Amino acid sequence: MISVASITFVVAGFLVLASVVQPAAERLHLPYTVLLAVVGVAIGGLSSFLLYTPLTNVFDDIVRPVVDLPFNASIFLVVFLPLLLFHAALTIDLREIAPDWAPILTLAVVAVFAAAAAIGFSLNFAAGIPLTVALLVGAIVATTDPAAVVAIFHELGAPARLTRLLEGESLLNDAAAIVLFSMLVGMLVLCISARPFSAGLSSAPSAGASSA
After folding, report:
1. Rg for the chain (alpha carbons), in Å?
2. Rounded to the nearest 5°, which phi and psi values hold at 71?
């Protein structure tokens, strides 16, 4: 069981690291969000390697709070996602995005469903993952991160209309992805719950035949 002090220390360390990455990104002339993602992946991969490798156990107590940080999907859905959407809603001007409602809805609904389908069918074809599970993965990763992409757009000096389209799409795409994800989870639960029933039906005639 990870103590509260360890969790606080890890979170504080992540915040300090994020504050250090920003000036490093400016010095290296790289987008801050891209460098932050690279550093995060590197820390996660290195921590998992040090924790699960049979080569050494010296760093287990140090990296275990990082690997086993008790942040589940509900925390991201209830805490972090509303903060991102609230930030986007504060900075966006409804009068500016109203003329572009058609492309925004197309990107937020049709494009999310198309991206989830492309990812799901690709995983099903390439890795042999069941289609419903593969589509679940597609629904999870199909949406964009508005904070990261908008920050990159501002750094690159992208056209204002492109930024507005992304900000408007980011307010709705999560809802589309959640609806798709909920539908796929319901389908998966129905498939799993129907298997014992169908297995019982298929075994009933053989049982009757053997008794006869």
Report:
1. 23
2. -115, 110
